[in-house]
Amino acid sequence: MAGMIRKSLNEPEETRPFEDGKGKLDLVHLEAGGVGRAVFEPGWQWSKHVKPIAKTDSCQANHAGYVLSGRMKIVMDDGEESEFTAGDYMSVPPGHDAWVIGDEQCVVIDWAGYADYAKRRD
């Protein structure tokens, strides 16, 4: 049996900034994958601020997370849409765009989809 593991998102092992200073992802690495805290600034949109980094037509991450603050709208490639707010659990499959609603940061903890999120593809 493995021992305890302590890692802190306040001392991330990696930070990935979004385009135009519209937020960042702080990440800690675990054997089972990454756990991250993303801060999405007002005006952030995946297709504007992460697409140039990911180089895919839509977000291909499978998200399982918890919204700590703010509001985010997510629209799937097939047109399905939902809005997530503070206190919501989110499960979002690959193939979507997303953006911050309003003038408050949206902060999300994700334990499924951030290992490769906003990772530069050259």
Describe the structure.
Residues 1-22 are annotated as: Disordered. This is Cupin domain-containing protein. Residues 8-22 have a biased composition (Basic and acidic residues). This protein is mostly beta strands and 122 residues long. The protein is built from 2 helices and 9 strands. The model has no long low-confidence stretch (mean pLDDT 95).
How do you describe this structure in short?
The chain is mainly beta and 122 residues long. It has helices spanning 46-49, 51-54, and strands at residues 14-17, 23-30, 33-40, 63-69, 71-76, 81-85, 89-92, 96-100, 106-110. The chain has a single domain (14-110), classed as Jelly Rolls (Sandwich).
The mean pLDDT is 95
User: Any idea what the shape is?
Assistant: globular
Task: Tell me the helix content.
Answer: under 10%
> Could you tell me how far the N terminus lies from the C terminus, measured between alpha carbons in angstroms?
39 Å
Decide which structural class fits the backbone.
Answer: mainly beta
**In percent terms, what proportion of residues is strand?**
35-45%
**What radius of gyration results from the CA coordinates?**
14 Å
Low-confidence stretches: none
- What is the H-and-E element order? EEEHHEEEEEE
CATH class: Mainly Beta
Number of domains: 1
Q: Note the total helix count.
A: 2
Largest sheet: 6 strands, antiparallel
CATH topology: Jelly Rolls
**What is the CATH superfamily label?**
Jelly Rolls
CATH architecture tag: Sandwich
Strand order of the largest sheet: 1-2-3-9-4-7
